[in-house]
Amino acid sequence: ARLSVREALASLEESRKDIKIQGWVRSVRSQKDVLFLHVNDGSSLESLQIVSEPNLKGSALSFGSSVEVVGTLVKSPHKKQSVELKASDIRVLGACDSYEFPFKLKERHPPDYARQYPHLRCRTNTFSSLLRVRSEATAAIHRFFQSNGYVHIHTPIITSNDCEGAGELFQVEATNWDSAAGDKSGFFDVPAYLTVSGQLHLEVMSGGFTRVFTFGPTFRAENSQSRRHLAEFYMVEAEVSFTESLEDIMQVMEDLFKSTTTALLSRCPEEMDFFNRYVSPGQKDRLEQLLKQRFMIMSYTEAIDVLQNSRDAFRYKPQWGCDLQTEHEKYLVKHCGNIPLFVTNYPYDLKPFYTRDNEDGPQHTVAAVDLLVPGIGELFGGSLREERLDILQSRLDGLGLNETYQWYLEIRKFGSVPHGGFGMGFERYLQCILGIDNIKDVIPFPRFPHSCLL
Ligand code: 4AD
Ligand code: MG
């Protein structure tokens, strides 16, 4: 029977004959009359120990080569592992020149070194652990929404709108579009872009469903090399109809964060321990503490007050009406004892056209909320949406977007409902949970200015 390394390691029977294991050699140790191999296949952090006669093709076996091993799975006499495979046959499927292979046996490679080899870094413990956690987190997020009555919507990747209105768009055009035939209108007749957010399409669906979500790639032509920005990242977005309170939306944000994190702690214990040990010491304790606490809440106006009264020297002076900078966000979270912090009711002029007007004054605000987390700053952005036709219409008029958003206005014209939602940056979530410094190390193939490897 073919077993994965994970299945083999979990095997409790005394001894099992004719077991086949396939994977990559993580270490080779040859003694006079015995050869020890460790084989890993990505199914678990641990590798399976293979014990064999030294004359079993020992020469082609090297760190990094791929192998297929047949043998008997037995209880291991060694303390470090529960079982080992006594090999009767070892077949090298793909040799590997260990001198040229960029990753070395028993060496810890710094993340920026591993990043140079996106085609090979899944062979390292750190990156393969990350990818297993990423996969479990994806499944946990889907489970959270599906089990709470949300319908999953595939929102489009190509769109003709700029949801955030920030002008950070990648334009899409066909390479073979027929310029010889004089068709200058482009493939879609209108300018088309890679989506920056699925929100507007989710809002369409929230006109017929009570709860919807999407979880897909989003794209931003942000000219930033920062440790928390990518040009292509995954966003988890939800939209809830029939809600008139921002607190309802904040509750879903907090529940999503806690439920996903709880799932990771219980489903990826080895990986969480690994990151706790080698990447961010103390991380597991911090997470467990955080799960027990209610997140904090502060209005934007209070936040500006806190910042202005701080003794820290900021690069950007905090001022009512200005966007919170990363340094401000990190300070606020620290100020709140490193507990995630909801900042609510931002200035009207800072948030996109769809955000619901609080109609207050003289400091005019909207019903928007960001969730700030330790070490990262902004993790979620959300808001109540403007569901009142007249108010939305005059805001779009002012922006000269009335024409463009006729369809969006019609959602308000035909059975409008009070609703709200949010988006969570999936890579920032992983950074936050695992304590990983750079966002480029939590996505298989990072895209950022001047870099589109593979
Ligand atoms: O705050 P943002 O721009 O909000 C929206 O796009 C809303 N339309 C979402 C919604 O309400 N449905 O983005 C949401 C989150 C941010 O809080 C951040 O975590 C992440 O997406 N994000 C990025 N992550 C990585 N790289 C970037 N360049 C990011 N820009 C935003
Ligand atoms: Mg935001």
Automatic annotation (TrEMBL):
<comment type="similarity">
    <text>Belongs to the class-II aminoacyl-tRNA synthetase family.</text>
</comment>
<keyword id="KW-0067">ATP-binding</keyword>
<dbReference type="InterPro" id="IPR004522">
    <property type="entry name" value="Asn-tRNA-ligase"/>
</dbReference>
<keyword id="KW-0648">Protein biosynthesis</keyword>
<keyword id="KW-0030">Aminoacyl-tRNA synthetase</keyword>
<protein>
    <recommendedName>
        <fullName>asparagine--tRNA ligase</fullName>
        <ecNumber>6.1.1.22</ecNumber>
    </recommendedName>
</protein>
<dbReference type="InterPro" id="IPR004365">
    <property type="entry name" value="NA-bd_OB_tRNA"/>
</dbReference>
<dbReference type="InterPro" id="IPR006195">
    <property type="entry name" value="aa-tRNA-synth_II"/>
</dbReference>
<feature type="domain" description="Aminoacyl-transfer RNA synthetases class-II family profile">
    <location>
        <begin position="131"/>
        <end position="444"/>
    </location>
</feature>
<dbReference type="GO" id="GO:0006421">
    <property type="term" value="P:asparaginyl-tRNA aminoacylation"/>
</dbReference>
<dbReference type="InterPro" id="IPR045864">
    <property type="entry name" value="aa-tRNA-synth_II/BPL/LPL"/>
</dbReference>
<keyword id="KW-0547">Nucleotide-binding</keyword>
<dbReference type="Pfam" id="PF01336">
    <property type="entry name" value="tRNA_anti-codon"/>
</dbReference>
<keyword id="KW-0436">Ligase</keyword>
<dbReference type="InterPro" id="IPR002312">
    <property type="entry name" value="Asp/Asn-tRNA-synth_IIb"/>
</dbReference>
<dbReference type="GO" id="GO:0003676">
    <property type="term" value="F:nucleic acid binding"/>
</dbReference>
<dbReference type="GO" id="GO:0004816">
    <property type="term" value="F:asparagine-tRNA ligase activity"/>
</dbReference>
<dbReference type="Pfam" id="PF00152">
    <property type="entry name" value="tRNA-synt_2"/>
</dbReference>
<dbReference type="GO" id="GO:0005739">
    <property type="term" value="C:mitochondrion"/>
</dbReference>
<dbReference type="InterPro" id="IPR012340">
    <property type="entry name" value="NA-bd_OB-fold"/>
</dbReference>
<dbReference type="InterPro" id="IPR004364">
    <property type="entry name" value="Aa-tRNA-synt_II"/>
</dbReference>
<dbReference type="GO" id="GO:0005524">
    <property type="term" value="F:ATP binding"/>
</dbReference>
